[in-house]
């Protein structure tokens, strides 16, 4: 397996090597703003034409729910880590009940013949119906009452042609099933149901981001953006139909109003002109199954962060003339492509986190079993500012301090305790022998994880900021100071009018200042899902930091990020409901 070229520090000190990597993986606020501008451009190019990198897929979902919807539906969700089949009961009071079963999708299924994959999907629905016979009668299909309606959440780029049909554009996230691209995904699934004579009809097709947006709107009463930060990353938002020129000849264009658009933002800057690629990113891309695709996603999502970090670590393990990490040893986990799971990074960062008060005694015992060191934490108060403490502002490892017994002796007990916790995680998760991992190694790996994850969260902020700008809810922070009118939201779509359909408040400059202020101060609902945003330490905090630097603290404060719980299932159910209502 190709690896990143090893560092040579013949003419550099080890500290210079670390500084160099730190520099490459650190993003400055000015770059975030520049990227957001490029992102906005791609949004508008994609709204204008079919076939662009950022596909900006019209979903044909033209209203968002308000929580009063009712019905019982089947949902099938393909595109995350597992395949899920669910039965969703919408109670009509912003609540729902959901029963689900997860099924594994093997690599063989992901990369084999599409018909085999879709047969497996149909078998899974069949198995679910056998083990979970419907509790309440499923909302009948108006046309054929004994057929069960199903909503499909299919989280890959699809050019949707109607609520219930769409052509697969590309595979992402490790899928590459043959003879699928260019075909209608709903037909592929329906054919599989029909081959098995199942009384199930796929009536709606939805991306997981659209599902997140709809389900968050259903449970919270307002949401403008649904975003996934998990295995992959993507977002869907409510756009004015008038701003989607490529819908020109579609009847939807004549109806006007708003439509949910699935951005497929994972493909932002596939041309690689703006994103801050490092050698670690390039080797990941080159050795992935979709080189030159999903450029943005490869910087951000859970599928890739572990692999980027693995390449950073390998470059230090292989550094010449002397290794800089793990004494030059590599385990199977570290050697294998995709061997380092993003969850390891999360554990490493958690291990570092301060839980000093509860852990004080434990740490003292771990670090100092004989009780010979003073039982105090010099790192907490009155600490020598010249000492390396590894905290957020001082995370870059100090090679001199961490490389000698005298240097290590200067570290506070608190810092040693944290490093020891990280060291233990590395021994167990990277499968090293205890003696092969030093405290310096722990400091280096934790720094590498933090850099890669922080970069991901900052870039996630770029995507969210771009949607706020695109929908007129924000201005660039530097423009705001020079021209405050940029920050006045004209024609801001207000979600959740009567019947769950958005209404538009046209705010005229000057005449209704109070209304503008009120509107301006409204919360901006963002529904999110995915393992990174849910579990990675400080992911949301860092994403908000990015938002503040791009669109300012006033706007960032109003952004209400909430979990779109079971978004894929509930979103598919809500779409199935809309599809049945639309049936002639
Ligand atoms: C990938 C898919 C996209 C999906 C996202 C999150 O980017 O292309 O459709 O929404 O992953 O699952």
UniProtKB/TrEMBL annotation:
GO terms for molecular function: ATP binding; D-glucose binding; fructokinase activity; glucokinase activity. Pathway: Carbohydrate degradation; glycolysis; D-glyceraldehyde 3-phosphate and glycerone phosphate from D-glucose: step 1/4. Its EC number is 2.7.1.-. The keyword Kinase applies. Pfam families: Hexokinase_1, Hexokinase_2. GO terms for cellular component: cytosol; mitochondrion. This is Phosphotransferase. It comes from Lentinula raphanica.
């Amino acid at each position: 397996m190709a690896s990143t070229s090893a560092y040579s520090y013949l003419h550099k000190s080890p500290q210079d090597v670390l500084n160099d990597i730190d520099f490459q993986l650190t993003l400055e606020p000015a770059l975030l703003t520049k990227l957001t501008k490029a992102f906005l451009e791609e949004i508008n190019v994609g709204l204008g034409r079919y076939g662009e990198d950022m596909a900006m897929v019209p979903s044909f979902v033209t209203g968002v729910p308000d929580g009063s919807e009712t019905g019982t539906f089947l949902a099938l969700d393909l595109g995350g880590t597992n395949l899920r089949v669910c039965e969703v009961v919408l109670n009509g009071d912003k609540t729902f009940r959901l029963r689900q079963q997860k099924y594994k999708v093997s690599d063989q299924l992901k990369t084999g013949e599409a018909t085999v994959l879709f047969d497996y999907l149909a078998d899974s629905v069949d198995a679910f119906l056998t083990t979970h016979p419907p509790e309440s009668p499923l909302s009948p299909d108006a046309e054929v009452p004994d057929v069960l309606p199903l909503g499909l959440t299919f989280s890959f780029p699809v050019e949707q042609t109607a609520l219930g049909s769409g052509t697969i554009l590309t595979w992402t996230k490790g899928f590459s099933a043959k003879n699928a691209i260019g075909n209608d995904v709903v037909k592929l699934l329906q054919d599989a149901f029909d081959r098995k004579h199942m009384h199930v009809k796929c009536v709606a097709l939805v991306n997981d981001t659209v599902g997140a947006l709809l389900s968050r709107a259903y449970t919270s009463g307002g949401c403008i953006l649904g975003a996934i930060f998990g295995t992959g990353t993507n977002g869907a938002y409510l756009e004015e139909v008038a701003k989607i020129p490529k819908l020109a000849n579609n009847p939807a264009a004549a109806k006007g109003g708003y439509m949910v658009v699935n951005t497929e933002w994972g493909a932002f800057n596939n041309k690689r002109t703006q994103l801050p690629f490092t050698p670690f990113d390039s080797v990941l891309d080159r050795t992935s199954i979709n080189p030159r695709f999903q450029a943005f996603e490869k910087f951000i999502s859970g599928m890739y962060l572990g692999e980027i970090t693995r390449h950073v670590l390998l470059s230090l393990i292989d550094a010449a003339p002397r290794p800089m990490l793990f004494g030059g040893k590599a385990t199977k986990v570290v050697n294998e492509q995709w061997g380092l799971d993003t969850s390891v990074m999360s554990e490493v960062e958690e291990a570092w986190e301060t839980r000093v008060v509860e852990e004080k005694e434990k740490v003292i015992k771990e670090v100092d079993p004989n009780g010979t060191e003073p039982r105090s934490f010099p790192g907490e108060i009155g600490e020598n500012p010249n000492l390396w403490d590894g905290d957020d502002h001082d995370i870059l490892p100090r090679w001199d301090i961490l490389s000698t017994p005298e240097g290590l002796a200067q570290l506070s007990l608190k810092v040693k305790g944290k490093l020891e916790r990280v060291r233990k995680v590395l021994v167990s998760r990277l499968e090293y022998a205890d003696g092969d991992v030093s405290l310096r190694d722990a400091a280096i790996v934790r720094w590498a994880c933090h850099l890669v994850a922080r970069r991901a969260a900052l870039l996630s902020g770029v995507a969210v900021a771009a949607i706020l700008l695109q929908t007129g809810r924000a201005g660039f922070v530097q423009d705001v100071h020079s021209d405050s009118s940029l920050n006045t939201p004209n024609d801001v779509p207000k979600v959740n009018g009567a019947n769950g359909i958005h209404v538009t408040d046209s705010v005229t400059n000057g005449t209704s200042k109070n209304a503008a202020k009120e509107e301006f101060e409204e919360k901006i609902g963002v529904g999110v899902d995915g393992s990174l945003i849910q579990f990675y330490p400080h992911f949301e905090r860092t994403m908000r930091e990015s938002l503040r630097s791009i669109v300012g603290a006033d706007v960032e404060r109003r952004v209400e990020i909430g979990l779109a719980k079971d978004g894929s299932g509930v979103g598919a159910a809500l779409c199935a409901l809309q599809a049945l209502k639309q049936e002639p």
